Amino acid sequence: MPDMYNVTGMSCAACSARVERVVKRIPGVTSCAVSLLTNSMSVEGSAKVSDIIAAVEKAGYGASLKVEERVTQSHSQEENILADHETPILKKRLIASLIFLTVLMYFSMGHMINLPLPEFFTDNHVAQGIAQLLLAGIIMIINQKFFISGFTSLLHFAPNMDTLVAMGSFASFSWSVYVLFIMTRPHAGIVSMSDYYFESAGMILTLITIGKMLEAKSKGRTTDALKSLMKLAPKTANIIRNGQEVTVPIEHVQRGNIFVVRPGENIPVDGIIIEGTSAVNESALTGESIPVDKTEGDSVSAATVNQSGFIKCEAIRVGEDTTLSQIIKMVSDAAATKAPVAKIADKVCGIFVPAVIVIAIIVVTGWLIAGKTFGDALSYGIAVLVISCPCALGLATPVAVMVGNGMGAKNGILFKTSASLEETGKIKIAALDKTGTITSGEPKVTDIIPSDEITEEELMRLAYSLESKSEHPLAHAVVEYAKARNVSPEDVKDFHALPGNGLTAKLNDEITLTGGSVKFIRENLTVNEKYIHEAEKLAEDGKTPLMFARNDELLGIIAVADVIKPESTQAIHELKSLGIHVVMLTGDNERTARAIGKQAGVDEVIAGVLPDGKENVIRELQTKGKTAMVGDGINDAPALTRADIGIAIGAGTDIAMDAADVVLMKSNLLDVPSAIRLSRATLRNIHENLFWAFIYNVIGIPLAAGLWGLKLDPMFGAAAMSLSSFCVVTNALRLNLFKIRG
Predict the structure, then answer these.
(1) Which of 627, 724, 639 lies closest to 676, judged by CA?
(2) Residue of 162, 270, 433, 644 with catalytic role
């Protein structure tokens, strides 16, 4: 498992690229991914924590190891990290900046629209310049973070977006100060009021602050799903201690404690019901709004809501081991990983800012050679600095990934990494395990065919009497069916189970009841061809026919099958409509497998696959295209790991879920096409973001440089830069409107 770190001091994508670069150079580090969105870093390898922190600090940033403590403490720490701390600070800075900028603009441009100036300033250009200098200086002090971050990163040879802003504003201010000093000389004819750029120095900072605030606000919304999950974590629990019910903080609940939950209360930790029944709303974890009936022996999860009865439970998973905590950790960790599509943007961000600085210097030099005044040439260079935006590139992928992950989590679909979110939508083949995935995994009675001499109820009563003594799964299906219809069994004696064949028992000491396979019954009595034909037909449909007899009289046939889940056929249809080749894997014989496959509507059936052979099948399928494996059992784990994307049904084993890339919490096969649709929508959104971020810079920088014969005021460049990142984040938030269901 990778170590997770909190990283401070990052202001743009160039910063995250710099941190990632320096950490990857440390001996022993095998991989590193830095998230600007969550200010976190994931590091794998044998390198010491102290070495990693030292490297980050040497690069000009701060780092600390995330410590997983008790669940409520770690969740509050996570919430604090994800909370929008930036917007309130930026709002104060913006209000103060706007107040002084308004006065500055009055002095710098008021005369253009005939606004009156105090008499002292009338025709006193030096006095006006001094006033503008002071006002611009105040705005620069208010926004000093740009200069501290920008020039500090420059000293570390890792310039970032703040460097561009700081250089643009400082260049405007410095040139204006120079002009002001020239104007103090008598008859300074080479300069005029129009050569002042004090308003640009202040306006650049103010406009960028507006953009930063809008961006921060939008970024805060991208983590809403994760923050909502954290808020679900209960703070207290009612436990039984020394025979008394006491309320304790959630971190004091230990495994084995007995806790009680009343109607309307949240279940505090994962547990098993030991007393009582209830309907539990599990929508917080699965997205499924219909309450689930629970009784003694059933499991319950933290943050779900007890809607009806009073229940008493035993705690089995507490702290960070609860299902809720695991979901939060999975979504949070996924945000700290990098999607493959982000690699191009990361490479560009790593060299973007130095390249822009070089371009700005070339632009200034070029215009000077072309005969422009230094003021005009500098204006072009400043415009280049402030219009370029590495943040739009750097945010294009992580904001979309965070929103996509959040959408998945709200709907019970958990992507473990950003890569799995991206790659799920690219699959061409879906291999579905039959038992427990396409089918319910539990045999159920499907057909009852009594002989002409008895009724269906009589057949069920005698079959129930015989099968109630057996522990075989097929017997269990008959018993459950009979119980559901309130059939009363009779007491039988001398019960014998003949493995692989059937059962026998005595009823009233004189009647012999027999049940089992068609072959077994035919060995003991003559069976009418009509019933043999019925049995064969049932077998062709993938069902197991069980024959029952009383002495030498055939009572009839009860067919049992591992039935297809109600949603499986629709899910497979949706997968095929998405252009995916659907394969069913099963250990069943070819005949039964074909019957189930036909009912489910799959494209291909691969039968007779032993548990250790599933991995080889996946390996073979991968030669034909990117393959996903969907399964739920321990025997599916190797295949889930081998597949390009492993998708685990949530009700399956922990081993299967650990091996998978995607976990479906609702155990609903319909979530497989939903996951693919969400992945494709997220990737499409990322491509849109990257396109606009690249195009913005490709068009904006030459425009600011004056290559198309236009002169772009630095203030307009700053306005464009401030809105670019905001637009990228806003586009990512559109994913919240995506309909995940087909």
Answers:
(1) 627
(2) 433
Contact (CB, 8 A) for 406 and 666 = no
Compute the distance between CA of residue 45 and CA of residue 22 in angstroms, rounded to an integer. Answer: 14
* Cα-based distances in Å from 517 to 41, 435, 514, 734: 60, 22, 10, 58
Query: 553 pairs with which residues across the strands?
Result: 550
Beta strands 511-516 and 502-507 are antiparallel
Q: Which of 12, 17, 3 is nearest to 219 (CA)?
A: 12
In three state form, how does the secondary structure of 469-530 look?
CCCCHHHHHHHHHHHHCCCCCCCEEEEEEECCCEEEEEECCCEEEEEECHHHHHHHCCCCHH
For the record, the structure tokens of 184 come out as 């103090």
Residue 302 is classified by DSSP as: T
Rounded to 5 degrees, φ, ψ at 53 are -65, -40
Are 363 and 384 a contacting pair, CB within 8 Å?
Answer: yes
**Contact present, 331 and 665 (Cβ < 8 Å):** no
58: Cβ–Cβ under 8 A, 6 or more apart, which residues?
22
Confidence tier at 655 by pLDDT (50, 70, 90): low
| pLDDT, tens only, 181-231 | 888 876 655 556 666 788 888 888 888 888 778 777 766 666 666 677 677
Residue 293 among the catalytic residues: no
What is the model's pLDDT at position 70?
Answer: 38
Residue with the larger pLDDT of the pair 328 and 438: 438
Query: Could you write out the three-class secondary structure of 570-602?
Result: HHHHHHHHCCCEEEEECCCCHHHHHHHHHHHCC
Q: What is the largest CA-CA distance in the chain?
A: 133
How far, in Å, CA of 700 to CA of 702, rounded? 6
The amino acid occupying position 128 is Q
Show the beta-strand stretches assigned E in 173-310. Answer: 236-241, 244-249, 258-261, 270-275, 278-281, 292-294, 299-300, 305-306
d(CA 19, CA 156): 12
Is the Cβ–Cβ distance between 414 and 657 less than 8 Å? no
* H helix or E strand, kind and range, residue 433: strand 429-433
* pLDDT tens-digit map of 51-63: 999 999 988 889 9
- The predicted pLDDT at position 144 comes to 93
CA angle 223, 249, 72 (to 5 degrees): 25
Distances, alpha carbon 86 to alpha carbons 81, 90, 493, 532, 619, in Å: 11, 6, 77, 77, 48
Alpha carbon distance 576, 381 (integer Å): 55
pLDDT band, very low/low/confident/very high, at 137 (cuts 50, 70, 90): very high
Task: Quote the CA–CA distance of 123 and 189 in Å, as a whole number.
Answer: 15
User: How far is the C-alpha of 464 from the C-alpha of 470, rounded, in Å?
Assistant: 10
Distance, in Å, from the CA atom of 451 to the CA atom of 481, rounded to the nearest integer, reads 19
By DSSP bridging, strand 311-317 and strand 278-281 are unpaired
Res 33 pLDDT > 90: no
